[in-house]
Automatic annotation (TrEMBL), chain A:
InterPro entries reported in the protein's UniProt record: FAD-bd_PCMH (IPR016166), FAD-bd_PCMH-like_sf (IPR036318), FAD-bd_PCMH_sub2 (IPR016169), FAD-linked_Oxase-like_C (IPR016164), Oxid_FAD_bind_N (IPR006094)
Name used for this protein in its record: Glycolate oxidase subunit GlcE
Entry-linked Pfam families: FAD_binding_4 (PF01565)
Domain FAD-binding PCMH-type: 1-191
Molecular-function annotations in GO: catalytic activity; FAD binding
PROSITE patterns per the UniProt record, alphabetical: FAD_PCMH
Keyword Flavoprotein among UniProt keywords: yes
Keywords in alphabetical order: FAD, Flavoprotein
Lineage of the organism: Bacteria, Pseudomonadati, Pseudomonadota, Gammaproteobacteria, Pseudomonadales
Automatic annotation (TrEMBL), chain B:
Keywords: FAD, Flavoprotein, Oxidoreductase
Protein name per Swiss-Prot or TrEMBL: Glycolate oxidase subunit GlcD
UniProt cross-references to InterPro entries, sorted A to Z: FAD-bd_oxidored_4_C, FAD-bd_PCMH, FAD-bd_PCMH-like_sf, FAD-bd_PCMH_sub2, FAD-linked_Oxase-like_C, FAD-linked_OxidoTrans_Type4, GlcD, Oxid_FAD_bind_N
Positions of the FAD-binding PCMH-type domain: 52-230
Keyword Flavoprotein appears in the UniProt entry: yes
SUPFAM superfamilies: FAD-binding/transporter-associated domain-like, FAD-linked oxidases, C-terminal domain
Cofactors demanded by this protein: FAD
An annotated GO cellular component: glycolate oxidase complex
Organism: Pseudomonas graminis
PANTHER family in the cross-refs: GLYCOLATE OXIDASE SUBUNIT GLCD
A Pfam match: FAD_binding_4
GO molecular function term, any single one: (S)-2-hydroxy-acid oxidase activity
């Protein structure tokens, strides 16, 4: 990944929403687009945006966190490592395990680490996603600066809230194209009592067939990855269920650091020079014959592909299987995100025009038309 | 302030010649069942919110998706409002018809199209009942998790439109967390797929946006839901408390212990007594509050968690703790809770069910506030509470035959919802805004936020003919509502003209 190196940045708790609002309002008045960034850790993903940089990291800090309410609220510029440290102290976690793609371990200052706002805007989730849900599933509320230059609040800090349209979850994965996220409330959960990781040698066809079978049983699996040779599983839950599952499945215990390395793209697989593709597939998809090397995650629902094949060839095969492909290497594809069906694209444009009428928020980051 | 559609504040609707429209539909769709006589239309004049009734202009009962498509095209060409309806069990009037609109009944689309055990999903038509999905998946030891209490009757299309919840949301999520894909028809009758068979799809998350959008953005024609493996075992504990505050604190203590129960419900004394009289569940009728805590999962974990929860409940001052000794007793414990609404209905000729959510820590204060309001308005309130996720269902007891009581019940309900908003909660956790809470939306959102909601609507339905008047109030309605509820001497929406 060729993320631009950023100068060291020390996270400070600070409410800078007025400054952000002013910058957005200036952009609206002068009709000059903004390129929204946090730590710039996911700058490789999506299309280039020409615009004035809006750096959310000036607006940082955990606003409220009451562990027994299972909700944390943080400003967009808060480093993920700061959020995770607060949760860790209370024995809780963000179950969707968002990757940071920061450069190296950020340490207490959170320098160079992905931000909370970037995590929600990119909507990427880690190995636990098929069992726990995605980033958007844990978003309870957001504060957003809109395309009309207003700082508004949607959703809230409660688990259930169906008043009005669900704009908070719409923001997740929208890559900043619909508004500037300034604050997010997230549902969090207690960490599992026990966590064990195991490895089992088998080929990918066998692994995928077993995973489809195990998925229909109440097993405490919380991560499943296959590298072509070895199936790695993470078992999480109470002492009894984890021990019983380990006994039943067998296998060697492995270092749980594997999951972090997989999530952050630090395995050797990712060092290969060919373009990286993310394939999102139905859970029970069999092994896919594609040019290049594959690494299976999410029990088969997410597969990483290193390949020189053309985007159209990859997308033809993946679409036929009911999935879609995203190019994770910068500058390879003009449309890194899979193109949308015609009516769907039209409604994307209409939504963009309604929510960002002056076209100031990350124009073209997802698709040229929005 | 009346909640029936009021063109003066909710927007003028086009004048439609019923006979001309009927003729056009009969010509274009000769095999479509259309109801148009007064006596045929009557059964459709309300949904589960039966205090409010409007006779629709026409009712259509399509059986094929192409009929829905053509119907939407004809209505779009003529600017005719369309209100979609599933099983009609909604509690917020989301499917309340319009005198000047067509009621589109989707109930005949009741086929389960495909159950895929390996893919752990079910593809169903929108009129399939919620419980029917779990029944069809049962042979594979799979089930569909969201279980609103109307699950034997409510349809999955309506569940998606309202983002329905149930008693297991804290652990298993709402409808939005349990969907893969929804097929919709736009207001122009164009087909779109939102979501996919994979766990995500390219573009904006329109699946999340449409879930809970109350039929305002499109008509749902097919739903693909996720199925989960059935938990190996489920155990339920019943704990009695001599104060509601203690019971509320016990809920926080259970979560602080690192346990997420499958279900965690609270009932107050009035609700306990009503349920016990009706169901004979064996509830302690002298308790001020009871908690029902269900733990589900793998046997060994559930056993260990039951011991942990029992210790927490003892420390929290429970006066009595019982564990259901067998499946029959577990079902009986739940039957009392699941029948709490009809049970309370036996205490009073009518009841009005609220649906506010609050941060759990605010529970004692909000319950005190409700009890003060109950006295002020002279109406009894029974409290049933999804304690785990902060979703309250205060039930206001009243008699619609007593002049003024419905108005008083409505006003009391409005005050309770405003109290929820004041402590950082929401006016609706799972029932939806519909028409019922249209005025309280003005308390939860400011005019800029409401304008943004209207902008979202305009992206999908610029003429506003899909379910007009539901979910999002006009600023005019809020101005008028605000004028009646001046807060601290300050009028909301001061920029608007009052008339």
């Amino acid at each position: 990944m060729d993320a631009q190196r950023q100068p060291a940045f020390v996270a400070q708790e600070r409410d800078a929403s007025d400054a952000l609002l002013e910058q957005v309002n200036q952009a609206i008045q002068s009709a000059l687009p903004l390129r929204i960034q946090g730590a710039n850790s996911k700058v490789f993903l999506g299309r280039e945006v020409a615009g004035e940089v809006l750096d959310t990291r000036i607006h940082s800090g955990v606003v409220t966190y009451d562990p027994t309410e299972l909700v944390i609220t943080a400003r967009a510029g808060t480093p993920l490592s700061v959020l995770n440290a607060a949760l860790e102290d209370a024995g809780q976690m963000l179950p969707c395990e968002p990757p940071s793609y920061g450069h190296g371990d950020a340490g207490a200052s959170g320098a160079g680490d992905g931000t909370v706002g970037g995590m929600v805007a990119a909507g990427l989730s880690g190995p636990r996603r098929p069992w726990s849900g995605s980033v958007r599933d844990f978003v309870l509320g957001t504060r957003v600066i809109t395309g009309l230059g207003k700082h508004l609040r949607f959703g809230g800090e409660v688990m259930k809230n169906v008043a009005g349209y669900d704009l908070s979850r719409l923001m997740a994965g929208s890559f900043g194209c619909l508004g500037l996220i300034t604050e997010v409330s997230l549902k969090v959960l207690p960490k599992p009592r026990l966590c064990t990781s195991i490895a089992l040698e088998m080929d990918s066809a066998t692994a995928l067939a077993r995973l489809a079978q195990w998925g229909q049983e109440p097993l405490p699996i919380s991560a499943a990855s296959h590298d072509g040779r070895v199936l790695r599983l993470r078992l999480e839950g109470g002492e009894g269920s984890v021990a019983a599952a380990h006994d039943r499945l067998g296998g060697e215990s492995i270092d749980p650091a594997y999951w972090r390395a997989l999530n952050e793209h630090r395995l050797e697989f990712f060092t290969d020079g060919r373009p990286l593709w993310r394939l999102s597939l139905p859970v029970s998809t069999a092994a896919l014959d594609l040019p290049g090397d594959q690494l299976i995650d999410w029990a088969g629902a997410q597969r990483w592909l290193k390949s020189d094949a053309s985007g159209s060839e990859i997308r033809r095969i993946v679409s036929a299987a009911g999935g879609h492909a995203t190019c994770f290497s910068h500058g390879v594809e003009d449309s890194p995100f899979q193109p949308l069906a015609t009516p769907l694209l039209r409604y994307h444009r209409q939504l963009k025009a309604q929510l960002d009428p002056h076209g100031v928020f990350n124009p073209g980051r997802m698709y040229a038309e929005i | 302030m009346n909640i029936l559609y009021d063109e003066r504040v909710d927007g003028v609707l086009p004048v439609i010649d019923k006979q001309l429209l009927l003729h056009a539909l009969q010509t274009r769709l000769p095999d479509l069942d259309i109801l148009h006589r007064e006596e045929e239309l009557r059964p459709y004049e309300c949904d589960g919110l039966s205090a409010y009734r409007t006779t629709p202009m026409l009712v259509v009962l399509p059986q094929r998706i192409e009929q829905v498509q053509t119907l939407l095209k004809v209505c779009h060409e003529r600017g005719v409002p369309v209100v979609a309806r599933g099983a009609g069990t909604g509690l917020s009037g989301g499917a309340l018809p319009l005198e000047k609109g067509v009621l589109l009944v989707m109930a005949r689309f009741n086929k389960i199209l495909h159950i895929d055990p390996a893919g752990r999903y079910a593809r169903v038509q929108p009129g399939v009942r919620n419980l029917a999905i779990s029944q069809a998946a049962a042979p594979y030891d799979l089930y569909y998790a969201p279980d609103p209490s109307s699950q034997i009757a409510c349809s999955i299309g309506g569940n998606v439109a309202e983002n329905a919840g149930g008693v297991h949301c804290l652990k298993y999520g709402l409808t939005v967390h349990n969907l893969l894909k929804v097929d919709i028809l736009t207001v122009e009758g164009e087909h779109m797929v939102l979501g996919s068979d994979a766990l995500d799809s390219p573009g904006f998350d329109l699946l999340a946006l449409f879930t809970g959008s109350e039929g305002m953005l499109g008509v749902i024609t097919e739903v693909t839901v996720k199925l989960l493996p059935k938990p190996q075992v489920a155990r339920v504990l019943l704990a009695a408390f001599d104060s509601v505050e203690k019971a509320g604190r016990a809920v926080g203590d259970i979560i602080a212990e690192g346990i997420i129960p499958g279900g965690l419900e609270m009932m107050d004394n009035l609700a306990i007594r009503a349920a016990e009289d009706f169901i004979h569940a064996g509830y302690p009728v002298d308790a001020e509050a009871i908690l029902l805590c269900e733990l589900d999962g793998v046997e060994a974990d559930v056993h260990a968690d039951c011991d942990r929860v029992r210790a927490v409940l003892e420390n929290a001052g429970a006066t009595e703790i019982r564990q259901a000794k067998d499946e029959a007793e577990r079902v009986r414990f739940w039957a009392g809770r699941k029948n709490a609404f009809p049970a309370v209905g036996r205490l009073s000729p009518d009841y009005y069910c609220m649906d506010g959510t609050i941060p759990r820590r605010e529970l004692p204060g909000v319950l005190k506030g409700i009890s003060a309001l109950s006295e002020e308005y002279g109406l009894r309130v029974a409290n049933v509470f999804h304690a785990g996720d902060g979703n309250m269902h205060p039930l206001i007891l009243f008699d619609a035959n007593q002049p003024g009581e419905l108005d008083r019940a409505e006003a009391l309900g409005g005050k309770i919802l405003e109290l929820c908003v004041k402590v950082g909660g929401s006016i609706t956790g799972e029932h939806g805004v519909g028409r019922e809470k249209i005025n309280q939306m003005c308390a939860q959102f400011n005019s800029d936020e409401l304008m943004l909601f209207h902008a979202v609507k305009a992206a999908f339905d610029p003429a506003g003919t899909l379910n007009p008047g539901k979910n999002i109030p006009t600023l005019h309605r809020c101005a008028e509502f605000g004028a009646m509820h001046v807060h601290m001497g300050k009028l909301p929406f001061p920029e608007l003209e009052r008339f």
